[in-house]
Amino acid sequence: MSLALSLHLLAAVIWVGGMFFAWVILRPVAGDLLEPPQRLTLWYHVFKRFFPWVWASMAVLLTTGLWMIFGVFGGMGGAAAHVHLMLATGLSMMAIFLHIWFAPFPRLGRAVASEDWPMGGKQLAQIRRLIGINLIIGMITVLVASGGRYL
């Protein structure tokens, strides 16, 4: 249980912490300092480096979460309400990320490659909104995970 929980927490910190840094710190600085061509190119390459970590985090979160649900709690029937909520929010976050990965992210890459800055700006705006939503869901999930069993 301790190995699964430790890996689970590490994966959550990487994913949610990365979104927090990108959305709250990097986004406003890049917006203030960089013109659209440099800003869009920066974001595309930031995502290109961060998104493999999100994939790894999702794999670890799913594996360790299901390991704890079925190996420790004896299935969903033995899991407390906060575990059900964490699973639901985690799956929601994964669905949002999959949409980002398969739709606006490749379009952002094509826009940057072809120097279509208006299209790139549109794709980045969509990614920004979705990451903002995922960040809120992720922070709620952290609150549920850390305090749920005490409710």
TrEMBL record:
Domain of life: Bacteria
Domain called Copper resistance protein D: residue spans: 45-146
Keyword set includes Cytoplasm: no
Pfam families: CopD (PF05425)
Keyword Signal: no
Span of the signal peptide: none
Keywords, comma-separated and alphabetical: Membrane, Transmembrane, Transmembrane helix
Chain segments annotated as transmembrane: 7-30, 50-73, 85-105, 125-145
Name this polypeptide is given: CopD family protein
Source species of the chain: Halomonas aquatica
